[in-house]
Amino acid sequence: MKKTLKFALVACFVLGFSGAYAQESTSQAHYPHYGLWSNWSVGINGGWTWRLQKETIDPAIHAFNPHERWSWGIGGFLAKELNHVWDLRFQFNYSDVDSKIKNINLWRIQPDGHSIRPNLNYIGEHLNWDIDVTFSIIDAIKGYKDPYRKWQWYLLAGMGNTRFLPDADRHTTDGSEDLWLGKTVFNGNLGMGVSWRFIDLLSVYVEPTLYAIADIPQIHNADWVGTYLYIPIGLEFHLGVTATDKARVEQEKLLTQERFDSLAKDLEDANDELAKAKEQENDLKNKIAALEDENGKLQDQLDKAEADNDRMRNALKNVKDNQQNLYGMPLSILYPNDVWKVPSDQMRKLEAVAEVMKNNSDTKFTIISFCDEPASYEYNDKLSEKRAKEVKRLLVEKYGIDGDRLTTEWKGKRECFGDCKFSINRRTSFYVNMDEE
Fold first, then answer.
1. Cβ-count burial of 86 within 10 angstroms (0-12 exposed, 13-18 middle, 19+ buried)?
2. Fewer CB within 10 Å: C terminus or N terminus of the chain?
3. Numbers of helices and strands, H then E, in the chain
4. Residue 149, by phi and psi: left (phi above 0), alpha (psi -120 to 50) or beta?
């Protein structure tokens, strides 16, 4: 029994430490970064308890004590989903093991025949409160692909306290005081559960759990350890995700779908077009040089070539003039109101932008910051200036981008994407500098 308690305590620490790394991802999908108030659940249960100790001889009367090893219990928990694999629980349950024990001796005589020590194997009515962690075996294997998976198979482990309650049915054979009544000791537990979510916010579960109860200072004495099996059947009510987290996660999904791949493709296409345009321009210059050496009969051809050249320059100018719409939005840094430092949840975007810049070391970029409607033009001009300069500073100092490749501009609320009241205008965007030469 001592090994069971020790193993439960070690497993609780290991699972709890691993659960600290809650926001993990898999190769299939990323677990959303939900806030504190999302994905809580409440569970209630009732079930059976079975004391694992066998009947022992009462040294006072030299006879076996009669026990009922089966009894009942009720309980519940408050759980927080850390991610698709780990949950943290605050759990309690009441059990009544050996509910019909009569005339038991709660003291055990030592081998020397004189000293005695309390015998905890008689558990009786008690109340447990624990801190547990659960580990989903199915989700750990299959990954975060179906957040509404109906069947779950999981392990649980935890530790906490047990308080023994008064029990009118318990009497000592020698009339001595029941030492354990009203005492609080430690417990550890291990279990395995299966649940089925039969509607979106409600699951039914069963999770047989082994409890080991011990007074830690006396754990080396085997008689100071009591163990029992609790088999509950219950309902778990899932409280779901807050509206704020739902809106934020949907926005992150939209940005994630468009950000890196779209920007990389647009940049690649623009570079290809620019290279073709330069190649065509060089060909035209060579033709012009050759035509200038010929006589006036070729003047018409020269005029046509110059017209083609002008059209090409106009096309390049249009690309540059419209680059704010073409290249600015996919990885824009978004800000809360009146904030100029890059928020922590936007740093992954900045890291992706830095990676693009590193992979295109010959390309220069312009960093432009914008504001939405509140405050004056002068205040928003200064705020957008701070945003642009802070982003440049991070790219240079944190990610090692050459500062000569970066130009900063700030528009305040003088230029808006749609209505200036839209929060998307609180942003810093990145634009490729087009070479017009």
1. buried
2. C
3. 8, 17
4. beta
Q: What angle do CA 105, 111, 112 make, to 5 degrees?
A: 110
Mean pLDDT score across all residues of the chain: 77
Burial bucket for residue 102 (CB in 10 Å: 0-12, 13-18, 19+): exposed
Bridging pattern class, strands 365-370 and 406-412: parallel
Whole-angstrom Cα distance, residue 54 to residue 247?
Answer: 57
**What domains sit in the chain, N to C, each tagged with a CATH number?**
2-242 (2.40.160.20), 259-432 (3.30.1330.60)
Tokens at 352, concatenated: 């992706």
Give the pLDDT mean for 215-219: 63
**How far apart (Å, rounded) are the C-alpha atoms in residues 379 and 141?**
53
Q: What DSSP string describes 52-106?
A: -SPP-EETTTTEEPP---EEEEEEEEEEEE-SSSEEEEEEEEEEETTTT--S---
pLDDT tens figures, 10-42: 554 454 444 444 334 434 467 777 888 988 999
Query: What's the pLDDT at 55?
Result: 54
The DSSP code for 13 is H
The residues pairing with 381 across neighbouring beta strands, listed in sequence order, are: none
**pLDDT cut 70: percent of the chain above it:** 66
